[in-house]
Each structure stands twice: as structure tokens, then as C-alpha cells.
Design brief:
Layout lengths: L14 H11 L3 H12 L9 H9 L6
Helix pairs in contact: 1-2
Length: 64
């Protein structure tokens, strides 16, 4: 009953961007996937992880 949507971005080669972010900032691909998702959907980013929020800001992602 939940309105769950699957993001098709990974099927379109965006996994290269995730790897790139992961290497650039020395973060996990798990964390990088959240950054990539926010970038592609131009969505604000929310996290209690201060380092990850700092990286998001460096990438031009709005922080909640």
C-alpha cells in the first residue's frame, strides 16, 4: 500500500556517477547513491551526517 517508486537512473549508466562521487570524496557507494539521487532529481538533501551534508553542499545540493 506504500507509494514506492523505483529509480531507473541506475539502469541508465548513472552508477558511473556514484562511483565517481565515492572516489572523489572517499565515501561509500551507499552514501554516494543518496547524493546522486538528490542531484539528478534536484531534490534537497537531509542527513544527520555532517560530513555527508558538507559534501552535498560542495556538489551544489541544497540541504534541509
Amino acid at each position: 500500500a506504500l507509494p514506492i517508486e523505483v529509480d531507473a537512473g541506475l539502469d541508465n549508466g548513472f552508477n558511473k556517477q556514484i562511483i565517481s562521487l565515492s572516489r572523489k570524496y572517499n565515501i561509500s557507494t551507499y552514501d554516494a547513491s543518496y547524493l546522486d539521487l538528490a542531484q539528478r532529481h534536484q531534490a534537497p538533501f537531509a542527513s544527520f551526517d555532517k560530513e555527508l551534508c558538507s559534501i552535498a553542499q560542495q556538489e551544489g545540493i541544497k540541504i534541509l
